[in-house]
TrEMBL record:
Organism listed in the record: Prauserella halophila
Transmembrane segments: 27-47, 67-87, 107-128, 165-183, 204-230, 250-271, 283-303, 338-355, 367-385, 425-445, 466-488, 500-521
Bilayer topology: Multi-pass membrane protein
Taxonomic superkingdom: Bacteria
Name the UniProt record assigns to this protein: Choline/glycine/proline betaine transport protein
Lineage start: Bacteria, Bacillati, Actinomycetota, Actinomycetes, Pseudonocardiales
InterPro entries: BCCT_transptr
Family note: Belongs to the BCCT transporter (TC 2.A.15) family.
Location in the cell: Cell membrane
Chain positions covered by the region annotation Disordered: 1-21, 681-701
KW Membrane (keyword) present: yes
Amino acid sequence: MASQEEARPGAANAPQAPPKARLSKPVFVPAVIVIVAALGFATWYGARYGDGAADAFTELRNVIGTNIGWWYIIVVTAMLVFCLWAALSKVGNIRLGRDDERPEFSLYSWFAMLFSAGMGIGLVFSGVSEPLNHMFGPPEVAGVEAGTGEAGRAAIGQSMFHWGLHAWGIYAIVGLGLAYMTFRRGRPLSIRWLLEPIFGRRLIESWVGHVIDVVAIVGTVFGVATSLGMGVLQIQAGLSYQGWFEPSDTLLVILVLGITALGTISVVTGLHKGLRWLSNANMALATVLAVVVLLVGPTVFLLRSLVQNFGEYLQTIPQLAFVTGAGAGDTWTLDWTLFNQAWFLAWAPFVGMFIARISRGRTIREFVLGALLAPTLVSLIWFTIFGSTGVLSQLTDGNLVGSDGAVDQDTALFLLFGELPISEGIVTVLSVIAIVVITLFFVTSADSCSLVVDVLSHNGRSETPWVTRVFWAVLVGVSGALLLMAGGEAALTVLQVSSLAGAAPLSLVYVLAMIALWRMFRLEVATMPRYVRIRSQATPSALVSAARENSDTDREVERSLREVLRSRNGIGDGIGDGNGNGDVGGGNGRGALKRASATLAGLDVSASAAPARALQLDSTVLAVHDVPAHATTVDPETGAIGLDDDGVHADPTAGEVFDTPEFTDSAVGAEHHSQELLERYVDGQGSDRADDQDGDRATSH
């Protein structure tokens, strides 16, 4: 890539406008066609089966889940293990950007944005209803009796299994890969570039890369449409619970259109304005809602339950991590675990790209631990406040679940508000706040989704035209509305089907992405320096102790220490020959260091030649690289050890240069530019050319 000085002679200080983002038709057109075709199929399927649509969609969901659900279990668990390895190993020291970069957003804004985009709607939707469902329909593997207090306690851990580390491990893998390949390696912010270390640049820029991005767009749109559909169902239930509107298809369409319009406005205002402000406001409102329920509800019980629920979650992880439902007499795994994991797999391109976009400058350890632990902790607190309160209320009063054990997922949250010891007016206020929170989560999800999908359709360029972002925001809203209309009473089942089907091709991409990242991280660790400090003298306490052992009086101790200091500062007779051959003058000066470490010959250890008034230890800081034995060579004549660079550095992406702002701002781009400057100026040619350019400018003036 040509440097800016070469590209713009005579205007070295003028800013260069980045090239305009171009719509990738091989990605955009097929993605839109597939989405429209899938929506058409869902609409036809619902109309074809009419009143039997619920059974038909359920059967379709079961076929998909039974045949590929086991694969989802393996992939999701592997993604979590990979995240933990990356965070807890040397890989965690790698910075997602240049080594001198710092995070773009504050910790609070970063967390608020990733959490709001990640699963806000899902937690609000499931915070009360899912634990109640598990309480009255526990999995066989849990071995508890339905409807009991024991089942209620286990239900929180089972809910957390779906919304905790496993869910965020999916997001973290995709986000980590995108942030690493873009901010450190300089690749476009696109799913396809996760696989460059495997396929190479030529294939990634061909139809193979187009297919990967199309799959990511389609999976993202249907994954987000699932979430938006769930959010609209709950908003409608809240309005109906207050007696303000009757549930109807018309109301659903109006809600989808209205909230899509809000999301469109947020899209136009951009990431640093609309989305960040909405995310922060939404987190504040959600916090207010949780604190009010904590204070007016069974506060002491909830505080005790928080610790207990944490323990339940830790016990549930090994219990359910590899359960696929094979041989089980119930459909719990299919109804809950597989649906949730497929949903998160479908969401991962959207959430992963979004959290990558807002995580520049963080280390891999910060990124992974932040993306795993912080949302999981908040989810635990949320399920404790709402889920445990619901379980206790049901055990005490029995008003949240029907006589047949059925849980109305849409109204469970609002029913819980009615069971709290507060007035009707406060119940109404809490219900309104909940509706606003769901709406804002809806808006931030639609906003984030349109931003991410538009980046994918513009070859990974992060700055895209607002017109296409608005198009995607509208298409996501329309998708959610049509899926709801197609399903009728089975709307939630239709949403489950869309997630299960959309996640299948994406799961293959994620497995290949982990293999590619493993190759790149091994390279990073192999070339990552360890910094060590070498001293030519003992510590002050060791010197004093040695002087005292060899002296009888304080005067002799003082004399001994002064001699050591004079010798160390080069005042004595010792002189090294400069080639690492020790003290050729017979003294104890600098030659002592060279005699002890011959390979450090010629290094400047910066010792002062002035008389010492205080003990300043002689030290040198070195960057040490670990080298495998197979990469070393030995000269048969001299015995000198050499290094085979090809045996150490096997970078599958080396030598690729991109004429994009992402590459220029990345760590690899900065290194490439620095190497160019060295090649131009160190040999003296660059300075002559710079002088000529300065002379030309002076003449023109």
